[in-house]
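Hey, can you fold this one?
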Amino acid sequence: MKSSIFIPYLLRDGAILQRNQENRFWGYTGSEQEVTLSYEEIILKTKSDEKGYFDIILPAHEVSESIDFKISTVDAEIVLKDICFGDVFLLGGQSNMQLWMERLKTRYPNEIKQAQNPWIRYFEVPQEPSFDNIKTELTSGQWKRAIGEELKNLSGIGYFFAKEKFSEDGVPIGLITTAVGGTPLNAWLSEESLTKFNSLPPSYNALKNKEYLKEIQNLDKFYQDNYQKLCEETDEGLHQSWQDPNFDDRNWPEISLSETWNEKYTFPGTLWLRKKLEISDEFIGKEGELRFGTMTDADVIYVNGKKIGNTDYKYPPRNYKISKLTKSFTIAIRLKIYNAPGGITHSKPHILLVGENRLDLNHGWKIRRSSTLPERYKEYFINYEPTGLYNGMIATLQKLKFAAILWYQGESDAGSPQNYGPRFRELIESWRKLFKQPNLPFLYVQLPNCDTEKEADWARLREEQKEGLKISRTAMVVTIGDGEDDDLHPLNKKDVAHKLLNAYHNVKLFPNGYCTGPLAKEAIQAKKNVIILSFETFGKKFSVEENKAFELFQGGHSYKIRDYSQVEEQIILELPTSLSLHQPDAKIRYDWSNAPQAFIWNEEGYPASPFELNIQ
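Sure. Predicted structure:
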């Protein structure tokens, strides 16, 4: 019987392997067969074990494009096309690392159609959590080029990082993407790691029972389906066709999208909004696009009674095309609020875009509530459970070699940031151990400014993220100012990618931990009312803006400190005479809020990391 050869998905056509390092090449064939791998002038041989597994060490190879690999046994042969040696980066974290180019097209409208570089490629690791075993192989996947339609699904940060790096050195780049939206840190840690921190939930072992998992997923689906059914059944507007352009809404109250709504419109249930619009003759027959920003929670939008788009959860921007504009038409929004406070994000633009023209849609909306519902329980996501994505995604990559890891995560842990720092350090060290690369650069994004997550403590989470810098060859990217106060998913991914590339270059120059902006080290009480702040500046000059305020926090109270000056790499704070340091817990804080504005910058224009320092 002829045997076949199975090559893992990670190593198939178009793969990028890490240059200048030995790489493993493995696969499966018949039991105890001689396997030959040949490419260029190189011929490597090994023998499969009794289960058919074979593993070959490829010698370190300099940068190279489009090599064909031939793998053969006595009765089978496979040719893998277009293998490159370049730089391979692992992209990890949650939705802001995952945020794909298609979602960024309003910010970067020409990137997708202009992308023509076949040497930037990516491999999306399937989202398959595992609890009862640590997976060693993927069940699917393929290498794709960051060109045209295929670029749409690639991480924006990953793409802009790769694009800029390639323009510097021309080295082919492979991006292994593993980021999954909404995931807490514990999903990416092993059982062994979480046991060290006593961070496994009491019910953890039940997750290893597939029947149990299926049952909780089915129960959640049953609940969510019934909640949606209730939404449909109780929606008066749906049954009376409030989307109909001829529906009489004269007696409805009026509202503006750019103002904060009365509470009666923000609790759970369904709302309908309607607006009649008349446009200039020059726009008739043209394509238009409605842009409404984000909404809490789900929407369906109609134009002249015809549905033009819908979104089922609150985070994506609502951008919907109207194929052919008419002189007058009616827009109807059916808004489903699952959890208070709901509504349409008032600080976002609400416009009709026709070419370069932006027609304001903020005012003159009719509104009416069509149902009231109980709060909806959060949907259950198996991806959020501890260890699942480490076992099912990260562990499958353990035979690869990388140039660096790029990480952006923390939003899902900001609600309970305690103990994040030590677990984050454990993640860095355990991944390096898994990949057998003890000095693998780990570059990560400190959370930006964002004010939508009112119950979360982003300031504390940012402070915890600094723990990563206690490990060698790590770098932290400060992104205060790169976020959007009214959006969990800021679109400015190009600047973040540029800072990550800055970190990649500098992590080698500052192997004991690098930060893109000034990093506060200590606060010392020099005199009764004088505090000296010292900074690590990584070879860059820095400056502090005038007429801003630091914060003294002591005894549970906060005091503004507005009298300060700079002397070289120190900032001297002078407390008012009415204020004394009388508490042992006194601290100095800078930018200590969810959505701060930076006022300390280095000469490159990069902001200082927010801080909280005990006064010594």
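Residues 210-234 form the longest helix (25 residues). Let me know if you want another pass with a different chain boundary.
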